[in-house]
């Protein structure tokens, strides 16, 4: 029997509807319109698509949006000056610097320059430290989205064996920290696998929940998955073209084979991707509430 498909598109729509109500209430009761600034340096094709989608969705929701497109040759000092301006702008609650940045700019220095209270991506060391001790204001958007996928699909997290394949600062490490907290929507036993792991299969086959962010097409095959496991595929890999000439997208999981063994699985596309953007919007609304001393909506 095929696995239940966990649709990120469907769950993102649910959260979007919740945000619309929240934003209307903020405007009508408190005269607050959350503001998000997106900054893109250069013209990386994928980054242009991501920034365009973030700008479009923020406007559709009724979030105030400012977009800054800077040339590829922008120097670090110019970007730091812009961040300083946005840090002090009361209309802006969230600042998003689209990664990757050109080689002449130190990405760590840039992310560290963002006011932690406006770091709606959740990558500032202050926010990562707060995540580590279970007191996060903002969870990084992709791991936050994955947690919501699991919760809203009825996957039991507490007490579960979780294997995460990949230890990036964007997905793997924060995901592990989120799920091992002694908290609702967490309290799992977490194993992180990576390029130094001797036998990845021995860990993935034990996992009740398998989260894959390996960056390698179809890296996880059916024989590596426990029967009935929930499988979350973070990967987006372009391999060849469809007959219509469009890029073929596949994940890091061999979807067709694994869906016959797993209990639940996310597709690519339409799984984790839509969640990342909607959780960015969620964090932006939360930032506006925190800056106005209002109680944020609990989503666990």
Structure characterization notes:
The chain has 300 residues and is of the alpha/beta class. It folds into 2 domains: 28-118, Leucine Dehydrogenase, chain A, domain 1 (Rossmann fold, 3-Layer(aba) Sandwich), CATH 3.40.50; 141-272, NAD(P)-binding Rossmann-like Domain (Rossmann fold), CATH 3.40.50. Helix content is 39%, strand content 16%. It contains 10 helices and 11 strands. The chain has a 6-stranded parallel β-sheet with strand order 1-11-8-7-5-6. A 3-stranded parallel β-sheet has the order 3-2-4, with helices on both faces. Strands 9-10 form a two-stranded antiparallel ribbon. Helix 1 runs parallel beside helix 10 and helix 2 crosses helix 10 (273-291). The chain starts with a strand and ends in a 9-residue tail after the last helix. The relative contact order is 0.17. The model has no long low-confidence stretch (mean pLDDT 96).
